[in-house]
Amino acid sequence: MNYILTQWVIFFFIYCFFGWIWETSYISLRKKKWVNRGFLNGPLIPIYGFGAIIILLLTWSFKNNLALIFILGMIGATIIEYITGSTLIKLFNKRYWDYSDQRLNVNGHICLYTSLAWGFVSILLVKLIHPNIKHIILNIPNYAIDIGCIFLIIIFLYDSIKSTKLALITKIDYLN
Known about the structure:
Blueprint: H1 5-31, H2 46-59, H3 66-92, E1 105-106, E2 110-111, H4 112-138, H5 142-169
Antiparallel strand pairs: 1-2
Helix pairs in contact: 1-2, 1-5, 2-3, 3-4
């Protein structure tokens, strides 16, 4: 995996966006109304970007072993989900997701069912999604990737600061 830093950053933002599409679509369909999921106001959910990057890093040496992709991806994503859930509660006194009603959950931050789902998502990511994304990104000139990174980082930082301020001063209920 010989990606340059800016390519990793682009991968992060792509997977943040894919996560937002998935999460927003899933919850909106369940609630039968539009729900913009995630901590940020914009169409990015960073936990998915970090999760994808961690899964790719953990599984790269084992990309031809589906069992190890499943296990390592499941463990990596579950750890990120637990740490993120715990941190968000400590920082903002808010729960952004809750698995308390699921069997075999830990503090409502993680549960066995979701962890197993992360294992399957890891296989999809490593074997199907990332090879196609990688092909596209590696065919974009580095100068264009650099410009895109700067643009995305500026927007991301602005949204992160604005969303953090809002979360600190309001009592938004993201579970409803």
